[in-house]
Amino acid sequence: MSTWRPPLTSVLVALATVLVPVAAGAAPEPRPDREQTVVTLMFDDGWRGQSAAGDLLAAHGMRATFFVNSGMWTYPDYLTRRQIVRLVHQGHEIGGHTLTHARLATAGREVRRREVCQDRADLLALGTTVTSFAYPYGYRDDDLQGVVAGCGYTSARAGDGLADRPPQDPLCDCVARLPFDRDRWAVPVKPTGEAPLDALTLERWVRQAESVGGWVPIVLGRVCDGCGPGSISEEDLTSFVAWLARRPASTRVETFAAVVGASSGSSTRDDVSHDLPPARVQPAQEPRAAVASPSVPARTDYAVSVSGLGIGQAQIVGAFVVASMIASIGFRVVSRRRRTHLVRHTA
Q1: Torsions phi, psi of 138, nearest 5?
Q2: What separation in angstroms does the CA of 339 have from each of 16, 112, 302?
Q3: Which helix (H) or strand (E) holds 83?
Q4: pTM
Q5: What is the 3 state secondary structure string of 186-211?
Q6: Which of 52, 176, 278, 303 is the least buried, fewest Cβ under 10 Å from its Cβ?
Q7: What is the pLDDT, as a whole number, of residue 305?
Q8: Nearest to residue 67, comparing CAs of 230, 294, 302, 272?
Q9: C-alpha closest to that of 165 among 211, 196, 134
Q10: Is pLDDT larger for residue 17 or for residue 50?
């Protein structure tokens, strides 16, 4: 009696159908019995082009979180106060990111408190709830965490923490599980890398999460073509949002605060005692002033910190140039006097 065996070709094709997608890192389509997938889009630094992102998402019924440096909204290339208010009216969340995107690693405690607390006070003055914070450059320590909590925030976001690898790897921390139960003062996000992001990358992250269920927190920077790490072109963002709108009902978009959860005691009032002057109410007229306000230091990547005060590279170079000019003028004056003296002595 003979036993039927499937042709070798059929066996190989079947194995390839199962193994090739796994080897290539592709994620299968979401299964009906999977947990729900939540996508959070976060825009950092308050760049002016992000206003268009707010309009695009609102048109698709989606809400994002915008982490804003309130000390920058009178500067060119940044969102104006009026544009931020528009984002609030569209239902987007506004989070704090310090006044000037300062490097807080070497800053003193008073500088830290002013950067964090005054930023939140300015944002609260817009009439919105502000509970979420993003650490500038992703830096955090215990003291800074205490400052953030003391200023009234209820959660804070790190700069990375979730790997960019297929979630089929059991050791891969690629997706945050729901409900979120990790450290709310160091919430992990997908890495932005060293290059601009594109629609295909964002779609891949969402598909990977859909294969296991969970939370995909994505950080975006400027909305423009090839503007550096974390940026995305308006074309790619439009394509991704349209694709996201067509995903199954098990995939939805929520703000950072909606996922992590805000304190029940949060309010739109600045009721945190941090001994700071009243929030500045800046005019909403357009266009922006091209000159920086003397009360708010311009954003800069500090090269040196002295007694909690940041000294930028441009300031160091400027001081060197001025010193060189003074030395050159002094040398010319001395040389001229010496030549005059020699002439008189010879005569």
Answers
A1: 75, 5
A2: 90, 56, 45
A3: helix 81-89
A4: 0.69
A5: CEEECCCCCCCCCHHHHHHHHHHHHC
A6: 278
A7: 42
A8: 230
A9: 211
A10: 50
